[in-house]
Task: inverse folding
């Protein structure tokens, strides 16, 4: 059966064809992922052996799959990728989509930087806190209050008022 497939490929004058498993291994993705891309109509096998059902791909399709994986890594959905790769997107539409992805990544970077800044601020308060030195000796309530002071400095006054109201 393997010989028939080889003969078929040679008769058709096709370039070297790669099995789906070889393609998946090359990109270090699962065969299931390649099949999903096929079901979505993004990367369709160049040849499917009618006897075995094996899917074969051309070297050019490796370039398509590389582009698909890069777009996916940039945050594009499979539907968006299909639109781009199958030709449904104009240059302007693709440009706008790229700019939107850029804004999304910039927003994520801003949020990450805010979290880094918050961690740095908390760390500084932890280092300078005299109460934190005896953290293990504190009661559960005292430890909770210390953590509120360390973590939520801007809300400490509000927390203080709420705490006093609760414990009165």
Result:
């Amino acid at each position: 059966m393997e010989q028939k497939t080889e003969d078929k490929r040679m008769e058709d004058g096709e370039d070297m064809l790669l099995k789906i498993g070889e393609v998946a291994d090359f990109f270090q993705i699962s065969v299931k992922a390649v099949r999903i891309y096929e079901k979505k109509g993004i990367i369709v096998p160049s040849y499917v052996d009618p006897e075995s059902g094996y899917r074969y791909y051309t070297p050019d399709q490796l370039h398509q799959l590389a582009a698909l994986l890069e777009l996916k890594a940039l945050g594009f959905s499979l539907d968006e990728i299909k639109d781009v790769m199958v030709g449904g997107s104009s240059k302007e539409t693709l440009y706008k989509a790229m700019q939107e992805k850029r804004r999304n990544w910039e927003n994520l970077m801003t949020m990450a930087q805010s979290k880094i800044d918050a961690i740095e601020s908390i760390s500084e308060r932890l280092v300078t806190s005299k109460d934190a030195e005896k953290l293990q000796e504190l009661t559960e309530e005292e430890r909770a209050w210390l953590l509120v002071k360390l973590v939520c400095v801007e809300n400490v006054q509000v927390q203080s008022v709420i705490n006093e109201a609760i414990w009165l």
Summary: Residues 1-13 have pLDDT under 50 and may be disordered.
